[in-house]
Amino acid sequence: MERRFARRLVWLIVVLIVLAVSVLALEYSSWLRAIEESNRALESGNVTAALEGYDKAQRAVALLPSPTTLLPTGYRQLIYNRARALYLAQRQDELARFLEAESAIVPQLADDAEYQYWMGNIQFTKALGQKEKQQVQSGLQQAAESYHRALSASPEDWDIKYNYELSSRLLEGLRRGKDDELEKMKRGQMKLLREDNETKQEQQKLVAPEKRG
Predict the structure, then answer these.
(1) Which long-range contacts (CB under 8 A, 24 or more apart) does 9-17 make?
(2) Residues 6+ apart with CB under 8 A from 106
(3) N or C: which end of the chain has fewer CB within 10 A?
(4) What element of type H or E holds 93?
(5) How far is CA 195 from CA 84, 88, 121, 199, in A?
(6) Which domains does the chain have, with CATH numbers?
(7) How far apart (Å, rounded) are the C-alpha atoms in residues 85 and 91?
(8) pLDDT tens string 134-182
(9) What pTM was estimated for this model as a whole?
């Protein structure tokens, strides 16, 4: 009698485990699909719809104790695509808070090239909005340092390489009392890369051939 009860108990536990795993797998699959739909919205230029999808997925992630372990593939994709959407929506302050909050939960994020890339973009954009020359220089210095860390983690990434060289060049120009390129940036005649993937080849022409990836 006891053996029969034990077998039934084991069988019930196995069934419950299988059901739980199946439900989690379905939830994970649904979560990934939601991110992919948001990615498509972002690529088509619908930043609002993309952010709505990312925000929903982000709320689900917030309930997990260890997102990088439980969601090894989708977690970083969500973080950095949401970062791009926030940046395109010109919500830099929110983006900075978001990245800092995520790196507080998962400190390893700060070692990612993509993390440092977006932090550099935030610092760069803020620097351009400053009026005092010293503040502009300080902001550009921070941006260049973030891009340098990103480049160390991903030396073949053209976007990072371009932005690092651009921020360094603007910084050096300011130190020498030449701010022509800075004014071009402020007028929108020059851009950081990864704001618009279609401009990559056009922007590449602005860097000397020997410095192109």
Answers:
(1) none
(2) 67, 68
(3) N
(4) helix 92-105
(5) 8, 7, 10, 9
(6) 34-106 (1.25.40), 112-213 (no CATH)
(7) 9
(8) 898 999 999 999 999 999 999 999 999 999 998 998 888 888 887 777 7
(9) 0.74
